Amino acid sequence: MRKVIASAYGVIADALGHFNTDDGYAVASHVALSSLMAIFPFLIFVAALSGFLGLGDLAETASELIFEAWPERVAQPVSSEIHRVLTQPRGDLLTFGVIVTLWFSSNGVEAMRMALNRAYRVRDHRSWLWCRFQSILAVLVGSIVLLTFTFLIVLGPLIWTMVSRVVPMVDTFQYHAELISYAVTSVLLVGALVAAHLLLPAGRRSLLDVLPGVVLTLALWIISGAAFGAYLARFANYVSTYAGLAGIMTALIFMYLTAAIFILGGEFNAAILRRQKIAHWREDRDHHESSSGPAV
Predict the structure, then answer these.
(1) Does 249 reside within a domain?
(2) Is 294 among the domain residues?
(3) pLDDT tens readout for residues 222-251
(4) How many C-beta neighbours within 10 Å does residue 237 have?
(5) For the chain, how far is it from start to end, CA to CA, in angstroms?
(6) DSSP 3-state assignment of 62?
(7) Beta strand ranges found along the chain (DSSP E)
(8) In the chain, how many domains are there?
(9) Rounded CA gap, 132 and 107, in Å?
(10) Cβ contacts of residue 15 below 8 Å, gap of 6+?
(11) Which pLDDT tens digit goes with each residue over 22-58?
């Protein structure tokens, strides 16, 4: 038991130490600002894509799904501004304007790539064009996945009725739209985090290599979201400090917090991998010494 506690303490101390030496606080600011600036272009592209596919106002429902996990006082200012943007009719998927929004929305992905490369301490020798193409492809795939899940949520009651006809046992349970929405949001979050750790940074890592950091990130996001929401409700008064910018600054501070936790998840994975590497090196050394026999 003591070894487990000592090992866990060593990994956490290593992760926090490298977070500090890797300029984690400054990188978190970059990721937070880039992500906030990417949200609007991303949802504009989602709106244009939904209009192109003839899915109507599905983008607005998708934006609500994105902010489902945010504290209400953080999400409300940003979501209200996004609502104003998305109420504009958009069918211009292939025009220059939406191509530019697609480019800018990929900047958020590039910021996360840079943060994870630092966390895993790897040099990215891949082509700049390839990395940018991968980021744009991530935005495209993310938009399609988000619209697909949103479409399923909208059709949830109908799907539930059809399934209950085929499987009568399902009819004994009540359909909970809010629970389904939270489940979909959780699936999207987990999938996005796993994909980010596996695909964005240079090098190769297995699912088991990145899973501890993903779990830690999700756990800290839930705790920090609840704590930040309670802080805003009881103590914070950003209006007196930032005046009319209070809503956006609140969102930016919250995104800085989530970005720092995201980077810490990468540092946590890197600390575990370093510890495993040292343990394997010691095993190989002991095995070599035991097989070579005592010195004559």
Answers:
(1) yes
(2) no
(3) 898 888 888 877 776 665 666 666 777 888
(4) 9
(5) 39
(6) helix
(7) none
(8) 1
(9) 9
(10) 264, 267, 268, 270, 271
(11) 889 999 999 998 888 887 777 777 777 776 766 666 6
Of 165, 167, 221, which Cα lies nearest the Cα of 192? 221
Structure-token pair, residue 160: 């539930």
Cβ neighbours of 209 (radius 10 Å): 18
**Rounded Cα gap, residues 215 and 1, in angstroms:** 22
Domain with 19, as residue range(s), is: 2-289
Residues 6 or more apart whose Cβ sits within 8 Å of residue 138? 106, 109, 195, 199
Is 139 within a domain? yes
Instruction: For tokens 């910021």, name the residue.
Output: 111
Residue 280 tokens read as 């394997």
Q: Considering the entire predicted model, what is its pTM?
A: 0.81
Q: Which residues contact 76 (CB under 8 A, 6 or more apart)?
A: 247
Q: Tell whether 295 is covered by a domain.
A: no
Residue 184 to residue 219: CA distance in whole angstroms: 17
Q: Which amino acid is at 115?
A: A
Whether the CB-CB separation of 42 and 145 falls below 8 Å is answered with no
